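Quick one, tokens below:
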């Protein structure tokens, strides 16, 4: 793996690092890969580490305000969002709704669950 790391550093391209990723999945334990990721992230400035981790986790970031088609844009954002983002924004959105809207939303998701 040390040689493969050297090759990835020398090749200095996405392909080289992708090969390193694939071989690391096969040759390194999960604990070794976590340690390697931890060390690499800690070597970065906090903003770089956060952006890198968000990219790996496929985080969508905060949703943009809807322009014309609110539901369509919300669904697009949701298709990009991480599980944590989906849960956080769903709960925050629900809590921000008026009580009658919360009740209507609850009825809606109950109907979907029964139909499924």
């Amino acid at each position: 793996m040390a040689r493969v790391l050297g090759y990835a550093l020398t090749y200095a391209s996405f392909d080289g690092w992708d090969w390193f990723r694939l071989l690391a999945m096969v040759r390194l334990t999960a604990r070794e890969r976590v340690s390697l990721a931890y060390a690499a992230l800690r070597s970065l400035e906090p903003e770089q580490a956060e952006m890198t981790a968000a990219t790996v986790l496929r985080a969508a970031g905060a949703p943009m305000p809807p322009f014309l088609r609110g539901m369509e844009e919300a669904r697009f954002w949701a298709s990009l969002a991480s599980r944590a983002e989906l849960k956080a924004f769903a709960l925050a959105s629900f809590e921000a709704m008026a009580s009658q809207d919360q009740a209507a939303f609850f009825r809606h998701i109950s109907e979907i669950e029964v139909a499924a």
